[in-house]
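HUMAN: Mind sharing a backbone?

ASSISTANT:
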Amino acid sequence: MNKKIITFALFLLSALVASAQTDGNKSNADKRVFEGELQYRSEENYNEMVVNTSFGMSYNGARNTRYIIKGDKLLFIDECTHVHTLIDGNGVTIYSDLINKGIHFDQFSEYAQCMLNTYSKDGISYLGVKVTPTLYRFENEGTATLMDRTADYVKGRIENASASTDFDIYAFSSFIMPKAYTAMVMRGVETDGVIGKTVWKVTNIIGNAMNGVSDKIKRSVYKKMSKIAGTNVAPSTDVKGYCMIKLTDIKERVVDDAEFALPADIKISSNSESSLRKRAASMTLLTDFYKENHAYLLKHNMYPTQVNREVVFSIDEEWDF
């Protein structure tokens, strides 16, 4: 299971001169729709299994990401892997500017089933497998100072039979953000405004995640995952991930629609399989896409440097990745 996590936050440029002004606990009348660009830097740590089975999507080390937002359009750019994710309404297109290839999904839900673990209060989905949380708790812990402004501090924990995930979040509530932003940055955890800083960690026991699955299917899954991971995958195998994300720059600006246009030299594939086979075919397309992009990065010495350490930063610390 891949936990590629990611980033984001902010405040109005016109309010920068008023450093004493707070962003916390804004009423709806004080908010406005964000349009512009958000720059994030993160450090991620995963255990060996996650890194080996992610086909280059996940690695241990620092990552720079950027969001361009206008209305319900969002372009997420992973500057370290050169992968772009374009969300326009419900449709999603993911592509690489290195291999000049991409994949289109007609619905965000189709993309999420193949790519994301989501944590909506209405239910949790692990790559499309829906589970009911046994605990879903988010509480306001007051405020914190970040980037010379006041942010809301939210602490949360989600549990189910197979996994637990802890969240610490600093958020600026001055802006109304599109659903696509929350889905990409916080994997569906409902947050108010722009994410300024967040720490989250997840632990998942593979065997618990396969409760109710037949022994025959379990054996097949363990065998395939062991081959991909390069190590034995058993019911007791842990899947661990940590992600520390911080906003480094915010630009409120007019965004031209042309910024969301696909480059002319990108070849986009789409899934034409019937609904019964669509998810499996989409996952194969995505796997092949990431494998090829990963191979290009390695061949040209562009793949981010792996950091061989397992570390979790506290949200109230100064970070220097």
Notes: The two ends are 25 Å apart (CA to CA). Residues 1-24 have pLDDT under 50 and may be disordered. The longest strand covers residues 238-252. Residues 39 and 66 are 5 Å apart (CA to CA).
